[in-house]
Amino acid sequence: MKKIVVLTGAGMSAESGISTFRDAGGLWEKYPIDDVATPEGWRRNPALVLDFYNQRRKQLLKAKPNAGHYTLAELEKKYDIQIITQNVDNLHEQAGSTKVLHLHGELMKVQSTSSGEEVFDLTPENYETHLGDKCPKGYQLRPHIVWFGEAVPEIENAVRLTEQADIFIIIGTSMQVYPAAGLIDEVKPGTPIYLIDPKEVNVSRKNVTVIQKGAGEGLKELREKYMNEY
Ligand code: APR
């Protein structure tokens, strides 16, 4: 079975109604990154940060996987599909994808402020976190999200998986945030690379087949037009 590694970003979930970050009207236009997605923002105003992520969870709980998520899940019948996602939603899993590595954390989890390794699940019935919500050891809980300026603990696993790819697919990411965007440089020379995005995205590699479409339509085209080769 060919190993396909798929790097996804916010555009993957756009057709599910989840806002991207850097498009017009995106999340970072409405909420300053420094306030809600950095350790400094957390120190300044943790209640605001908790509220921001409570809102993100509320939005996620109303969302459903889109055609693109389902196509990726279906491709598992024929290929070894490894998803590396920058998204903190769980729509790949909801669609049925079984191998999903979350580079930037997960919205439906929280972690202890004393250790990023002590992670706890939230539930759809109990998805909010507030000041005063503590882990069993008594430390305040915070979102299980990799903020700007924090280490990305899964990056080494992501690099290892990317090096093993027979085919590499990039979907719905502006490729502006590192180290995630640097994964394309880890793809073995000669490996076919596909990029699905309605906008032009600059990448460092040549010989990338670009499908300038949204995730749903773009993945349909990829499957029908290109996948028969493999
Ligand atoms: N289908 C596919 N791609 C789409 C769609 C769609 N329907 N709609 C928009 N896009 C594309 C945009 O053209 C853009 O290239 O999705 C991309 C979204 O880019 P960003 O908003 O920058 O999101 P992303 O690349 O995932 O951001 C990376 O930065 O903000 C942090 O931690 C956060 O994980 C995030 C990281």
Tally of structural domains: 2
What is the CATH domain class of the largest domain?
Alpha Beta
Beta strand count: 9
Tell me, what's the shape?
A: globular
H/E topology pattern: EHHHHHEHEEEEHEEEH
Number of helices: 8
Unreliable spans are none
Oligomer: single chain
Task: Classify the fold: give the CATH topology of the largest domain.
Answer: Rossmann fold
Strand content: 15-25%
The rounded Rg comes to 18 Å
Which structural class do the helices and strands define?
A: alpha/beta
N- to C-terminal distance: 9 Å
Ligand catalogue: adenosine-5-diphosphoribose
Task: Give me the CATH architecture of the largest domain, please.
Answer: 3-Layer(aba) Sandwich
Reported for the largest beta sheet, the result is: 6 strands, parallel
Q: How would you write the strand order of the largest sheet?
A: 3-2-1-7-8-9
Helix coverage percent: 25-40%
CATH homology superfamily of the largest domain: TPP-binding domain
On the 0-100 scale, what is the average pLDDT? 96
